[in-house]
Amino acid sequence: MTDSTVTSATGSSRFPSRYVWAGLKLVGSVALTFFGLLLVTFLIGRVVPVDPVLAAIGDRASHDTYEQVRREMGLDLPLWQQFASYVLQVLKGELGKSVLTANTVVDDIKRVFPATMELATTATLFGVAFGVPMGVVAAVNQGRWPDQIVRLLGLFGYSMPVFWLGLMGLLLFYGILDIAAAPGRVDFANLDVVETWSGLILLDSALQGEWEVFFDALHHLILPAAVLGYLSLAYISRMTRSFMLEQLRQEYVTTARVKGLSEARVIWRHALGNVMVPLITVIALSYANLLEGSVLTETVFAWPGLGQYLTASLLAADMNAVLGATIVVGAIFIGINLLSDLLYRLVDPRAK
Amino acid sequence: MSQPLLSVEGLEVRFHTPKGIVEAVRGIGFEVGREKLGIVGESGSGKTMTGRSVLRLIRPPGEVRAKRMVFDGNDLEAIDEVAMREIRGRRIAMVMQDPKFSLNPVMKVGDQIAEAYLVHRKVGAEQARKRTLDMLAAVKIRDPARVYDLYPHEVSGGMGQRVMMAMMLIPEPDLLIADEPTSALDVTVSMQVLAILDDLVTQRGMGLMFISHDLNLVASFCDRVIIMYAGRIVETCKASELKQAKHPYTQGLLASLPRIDRPVGELSVLSRDPAWRDGPVVVDGKMVG
Amino acid sequence: MTQLRAWLTADTPVSRNHARAIQAYLSWRALASNPLTMIGLLIVVALVVFATLAPMLAPQSPVAQDLTQRFIAPGTQYLFGTDEFGRDILSRILYGARVTLYIVVLVAVTAAPVGLLVGTVSGYFGGWVDAALMRITDIFLAFPRLILALAFVSALGPGIENAVLAIALTAWPPYARIARAETLTIRTSDFIAAARLQGASGFRIVVGHVVPLCSSSLIVRVTLDMAGVILTAAGLGFLGLGAQPPLAEWGAMVSSGRRYLLDYWWVATIPGLAIFVVSLGFNLLGDGLRDVLDPKSS
Predict the structure, then answer these.
(1) Which of C140, C142, C254 sits opposite A164 (nearest CB)?
(2) Interchain CB distance below 8 Å, C142 and A329
């Protein structure tokens, strides 16, 4: 065998295995994080002062019934066995029954999640559409008034309790100016007009040609989405500004100017092109954070989503529902992180 | 020398910093025709700032002033930004030090070269691509079609610098500023790159401002040499007459170089005299001022 | 005065304390040159003062109800108006500052040391210790913080202490990350090698050399985080999972005022404003501190 065939042979065998290895590492870390999430929710479930047996049978049942149900629920087994069966259950997609709604937690979440997704997605679009340009303008005008305004807007967003911002929005735009819709996802008359296909009411009403419902839903969505979107804008504009400042110092920016490109092209094509790479992670993180923020805003806007479901379950000490919702949000968090990691590899030619 | 392409008089570059004003270039004048002019100096001597102020690339807190800075009839100080963009790239281009930093990491190198052509020519994408492939071939890249689709991190330093040259030469400028174009490269690679640069500049009859800290390189590569020290030009001479330099600073630079034909036990250490900052200067062997 | 300034700006310190004094003075001058930072500092100092002196400053009891004085608009009689039980909102805000300060301090003194310890140990010892600790940190970092805090509180039962515990449990991982990164750069420096050659134990090196050097970047991060802690605590209070009535807590006050929002705007608006201002104060101060103490990360 000659030298060149040896190198090409090892070269071709090393390449796929390197990808496989990286993929395995990624899958392993995701699995580990998910396992950690389950461990934490399991332990939280253990420390609850509420006795799950009593919760199921009521406190009038006899001692024998109590013992029997306790065994049926597997509560007499050692802790690790309980955990193992818990993990198996969750992997099978069983999160138990909600005491509050008498449905399975999975069904409940399936019903409420689209509303939250609609809200968080619209808010993120808002945050990206305004936050990225604002961050760029701030960086380009570093130290001058556009920069100060963007910085201040960002700081305010970082410092504002989102539920209060929501209330202030309602007070101003609904109470005083009367241009925003009342809390809720649609007007009372438009409830249950469109069939639930995707659960995203904008999409469903558009597909079914119910334009009145569509515009009503849009009207209801604008304020809560803008409130949440402002949080996203604060974060995204701040990160964009700092990434952009870093990129504008790079030598390739000078190259672009030397070529005779317009300043707009230098900034929006060359520098921003490089900012988009780390920005993907930021946008993903911001989306995940909005899922959290929605817990507090949904209550304010009577938005029938995961946040309101979680809050109602919390107040009723409905632990299955609370832990189920926590697992779902946690899993989405992990999923979004994974997705941003993959997207990053796709956009950054250096990561391939 | 025929009609000069660029003529500069009383150029000053200063930076306003929190600790006061830093004068990077302190009133220099020179002319470049369709020739190879070397600008030599240590780091901090102002040679890079000289090159960049010609392209008006110095941004605040930096400030450029000149008594006169004219390129082919255009007053580089007076024309507006739009007119300046017509000069940048199209008439004056610049090759920078390290292709690792001077190429956009997320754009294919071919697209970067084509972009430089498309800004200045009203042609379609197809023709720009064709020109780019020709240009890649002109800088002696063997497989242009393959290299076109590579990203900067996928090419070697020497190839990156050839890409850079292709990008700067594709609009066919009249003057090329090369700012330490080979100091980030290996010695053998740098000789190849220089040979290509020399070919292209000579072929196209362009002017070249070759900025370097390497005295030997400049002496062998250029027609004329300017020696800068502390923001001033201390000596100007023909490259062939560099060995007979009169200024003590130039002589010190020459003496601190190792020479194979005249081995010495210990190389002399360059000493710097503060008096040179504002003392007399040498033009073509004659003391002035 | 001028003599003192000369001493404080001397180029060549004559003693270690002199050097420290110069360093402190220069940092202070850099901080003071930014008006926004000073506003932040002012807000934080005001929070501390109001919280400590609440019993003296408050015109009324924060819990005394007077149903004849319900929903009086802000004015000369009641600066911030009264709520649905006729309680003076100003007094409740002042006492609420105590709850906020209590939460902030408690989270800072529990989460920061834990993060610092995990990070320095992980960074200094490396190997499998590092791998294991960082895996755990990553797992916690990947969690939705507010939701995890909610789950904790719902399991432990509502109340300030449980809220603090829940927030602290989710707050330490970023500190561990920062401390580890700092430790990794410090670990290889010569003075650590010198200490090791003199026979110092790993524990002594971590506590005596590494921890003090990580502190400044950690202080910056903790200050910036306090804004988030205040918001999370207020969020828990808003959901009814934080401080329990009749204790005055800003988030809970917003929540109870919410029902009357359209008729009596001040009941929900003013406590929310208090949360916003204090949180902004920590953000402004943290930003300024970062520029001075940790310029590389700004």
Answers:
(1) C254
(2) no
| Contact assignment for A254 to B171 by CB distance below 8 Å | no
- Give, in degrees to the nearest 5, the angle at Cα C156 between C151 and C160: 95
User: Which residue in chain A has the smallest CA separation from B99?
Assistant: A252
Question: Percent of chain A, pLDDT > 90?
Answer: 41
Instruction: List all residues of chain A from 107 to 126 with a beta carbon under 8 Å from chain C.
Output: none
Q: In angstroms, rounded to a whole number, what is the distance separating the alpha carbons of residues A268 and A284?
A: 21
| Helix H or strand E segment including A7 | helix A3-47
Q: Does A295 touch chain C (CB under 8 A)?
A: yes
CB contacts < 8 A (A, C): 139
Digit-coded pLDDT (tens) for A222-280? 999 999 999 999 999 999 999 999 999 999 999 999 999 999 999 999 999 999 988 99
Choose among A260, A347, A350: nearest Cβ to B86.
A260
- Which residue blocks in chain C are alpha helix, DSSP H? 2-8, 16-32, 35-57, 89-125, 127-141, 145-156, 160-187, 190-197, 202-205, 211-238, 250-257, 266-293
- Chain A residues closer than 8 Å to C240 by CB: 315
List of chain C residues with pLDDT < 50: 298
What confidence tens digit (pLDDT) does each residue in A164-189 have? Answer: 999 999 999 998 998 888 888 888 78
ipTM of the complex: 0.90
Contact check, Cβ <8 Å, A348/B153: no
A50, pLDDT greater than 70: no
**The pair of three-digit structure tokens given for residue B286, joined into one six-digit string:** 């004659």
- Comparison of pLDDT for B47 and A191, the residue scoring more: B47
User: In 3D, which of A279, A294, A302, A332 has the Cα closest to residue A118?
Assistant: A294
Going from N- to C-terminal start, the domains of chain C cover 1-33, 39-297
Residue B173 preceded by cis peptide, ω within 30? no
Q: Which chain A residues are Cβ-neighbours of C152 within 8 angstroms?
A: 44
Distance from CA of A262 to the nearest CA of C (A): 29
Instruction: Assign domain C39-297 to a CATH class.
Output: mainly alpha
Quote the CA–CA distance of C150 and C158 in Å, as a whole number: 10
All residues of chain B having their beta carbon less than 8 Å from the beta carbon of residue A350 are 105, 151, 153
Please name the residue ranges forming H helices in chain B. Answer: 47-54, 81-87, 99-102, 109-120, 125-138, 144-148, 157-169, 187-204, 215-221, 248-255
A211 phi and psi angles, rounded to 5 deg: -70, -30
How far is the alpha carbon of C18 from chain A, nearest alpha carbon, in Å?
35
